[in-house]
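Continuing the series of single-chain predictions for the mutant panel. This is the parent chain; the variants come on the following pages.
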Amino acid sequence: MSEHGNEVFVFGSNLAGRHGKGAALYARRHHGAVYGRGEGLQGNSYAIPTKDEFIRTRGLIEIEKSVMRFVAFAEQHPSTTFRLTPIGCGLAGYKPEQIAPMFRHAPANVILPPEFVGATA
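Parent structure:
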């Protein structure tokens, strides 16, 4: 997918695609995240929006819908490794116990962050 081979950096974003802080800024600077695109594959990164277009934290149901789209995408790309950051647990303010269970059905090619391991039940 890029110079990083078949590894994709998965980060929390906002629907406006303003990748200006935290993992989103890192994704823009180092993994091809596109300013103005808030969800989906971008370069060798994948954005999962945890904030809306006005940079307000999205509800858990809305985040989970985006996570389900990501999980389906990861299932369709089994030869790609998706390295997940603890989305929603930084600027969005959620706890790992609230977000991690959304990834309980993620395929083996999704590498969970340490914060989520054991909290997916």
